[in-house]
Write a sequence for this structure.
């Protein structure tokens, strides 16, 4: 079985595990949902791995960081399956580590790249700055509204910083790699998903379809973040074994 077939297989398994998880949640079958949940990020990681191999992208620190982000996502998924403050903080730490890995990937893609000074590029950067400032304001406002203690408030705010920073660098990076727009919008879905979790944990706000909506937006977010990064790697000849770049579409 070639890399293309393996990529397709694991992509189908990712979609299947996602559907099983979401359907199980819609029927309040937590057992089946819990069985499917830890499989999501491994299947997505294997899809990304064989997608990169199929397009002759060299294995490097960038690829390793992408796989590490999804490994931390798996750990976070498992921790959040259990109740209690300790598991919640452990899950938050795992996801934060994953966000750092994505952040390092974005920085590596932008290393040594400079804006052309065109109105298009400057407009995109302006949008990126505005998105970062809005998300920073929302993060600060929400953390303050939770009325947390100093220690927990600091932990939550540091975690929340990952969203505006990664949205900014993904949007900024779209000047050089158009697929990074997919990553930027993926992070908006991620912020929405985590916001729903925060409302339940810190404000005890719940509703019938909350778990389903959390997982739906989370799955879409992770998939979009990975697709944007992988497609950007495929574009850049510096990361490809054949030394050829793929034209952006």
């Amino acid at each position: 079985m070639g890399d293309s077939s393996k990529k397709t297989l694991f992509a189908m398994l990712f979609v299947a595990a996602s559907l099983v998880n979401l359907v199980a949640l819609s029927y309040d079958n937590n057992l089946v949902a819990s069985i499917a949940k830890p499989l999501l990020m491994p299947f997505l990681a294997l899809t990304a791995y064989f997608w990169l191999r199929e397009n002759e992208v060299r294995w490097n620190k960038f690829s390793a960081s992408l796989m590490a982000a999804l490994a931390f996502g798996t750990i976070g998924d498992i921790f959040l399956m259990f109740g209690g403050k300790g598991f919640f903080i452990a899950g938050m730490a795992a996801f934060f580590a994953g966000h750092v890995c994505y952040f390092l990937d974005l920085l590596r893609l932008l290393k040594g790249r400079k804006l052309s000074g065109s109105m298009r590029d400057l407009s995109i950067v302006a949008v990126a700055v505005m998105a970062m400032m809005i998300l920073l304001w929302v993060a600060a406002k929400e953390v303050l509204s939770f009325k947390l203690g100093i220690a927990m408030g600091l932990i939550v705010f540091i975690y929340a910083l990952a969203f505006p920073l990664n949205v900014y660098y993904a949007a900024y990076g779209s000047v050089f790699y158009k697929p990074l727009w997919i990553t930027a919008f993926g992070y908006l879905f991620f912020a929405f998903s985590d916001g729903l979790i925060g409302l339940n944990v810190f404000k005890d706000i719940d509703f019938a379809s909350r778990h389903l909506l959390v997982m739906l937006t989370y799955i879409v977010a992770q998939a979009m973040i990975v697709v944007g990064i992988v497609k950007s790697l495929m574009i850049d000849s510096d990361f490809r074994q054949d030394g050829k770049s793929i034209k952006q579409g």
Remarks:
- DSSP finds ten helices and no strands in the chain.
